[in-house]
Write a structure and sequence with these properties.
Strand content: 15-25%
Number of strands: 4
Radius of gyration: 13 Å
Distance between the termini: 37 Å
Helix content: 25-40%
Order of helices and strands: HEEHEEHH
Number of helices: 4
Shape: globular
Largest sheet: 4 strands, antiparallel
Length: about 100
């Protein structure tokens, strides 16, 4: 349900992911100019919470990655979550370049 909703509501090129065969999470990669932390902050304003990739790297990687849990909510909430995530990505993409690159 989450994969289908993300494909429907997040414009192409803004979020890439491989569909897992199982597990609990969907690992996603944002466009290089979009920081995961900025997306997380915007999503939290709509009560959508996820982890950015940074805690999973020892080399400061993961700044453009999201870990979405697709088992924490019922499947019928995937549409609302995907729409909120799409809005959060769009908001983060509008950040000034200096913030998006961390400069």
């Amino acid at each position: 349900a989450l994969v289908r909703a993300l494909r429907q509501h997040v414009p192409g090129g803004q979020l890439r992911f491989a569909v897992p065969d199982g597990g609990l999470y969907l690992w996603c990669q944002l466009a290089p100019a979009v920081r995961a932390e900025a997306v997380r902050e915007a999503a939290m304003r709509e009560s959508v919470v996820f982890l950015t990739g940074e805690p999973f790297y020892v080399d400061r990687g993961g700044t453009h990655e999201l870990r979405l849990c697709y088992t924490a909510q019922p499947a019928d909430r995937a549409e609302d979550g995907a729409r909120a995530l799409a809005r959060a990505i769009a908001t983060a993409a509008r950040e000034p370049a200096s913030l998006a690159t961390g400069a």
